Amino acid sequence: PGSPAGRAVGEGSPGGSGRRVFSPAGEFREFSRRQLRDMERLFRQYDAGKDGFIDLMELKLMMEKLGAPQTHLGLKNMIKEVDEDLDSKLSFREFLLIFRKAAAGELQEDSGLHALARLSEIDVSTEGVKGAKNFFEAKAQAINEASRFEEEIKAEQEEKKKQAEELKQRKAAFKELQSNFTQ
């Protein structure tokens, strides 16, 4: 639940308001799981109200801490550029749109969102949006990215299995030692 692959901050309420649960890994396949975790960590860091949204004042503080303070109007324009539900605050999904647009080169060089993406220490350019030139390239890219996620998940599962096996071996060795002392 706390990872980007599960229900994300500010999206889909447990009360069942009819909205589907947002899956960052499913929708933002251009980013690795690590990048998504980093972006979620950054989002949570500046979500001072812990309400699952970054409002105008939280965005103001964020931009000041990143060393790129904005005017009140500049902050409003930053939110407006990715605010799909027009609630004047950023949900985690809308926050991720900033990085998608930055990686695709869709942000003005002098915009606050460009500064946020550039200064946030999350490098989306290394793996970012790989500008699919045509339908078939986009299709192949989606398949490759899905398999990359599968590989990452398998690697994590293998590591957990390995750790469980090591723990099992340590417990067996300990019991063997313990039996030598109880005789």
From TrEMBL:
Residues 1-24 are annotated as: Disordered. PROSITE patterns: EF_HAND_2. GO terms for molecular function: calcium ion binding. The keyword Repeat applies. InterPro entries: AIF-1_EF_pair, EF-hand-dom_pair, EF_hand_dom, EFHD1/2. Residues 139-180 form a coiled coil. Residues 34-69, 70-105 form the EF-hand domain. Keywords: Calcium, Coiled coil, Metal-binding, Repeat. This is EFHD2 protein. It comes from Toxostoma redivivum (California thrasher).
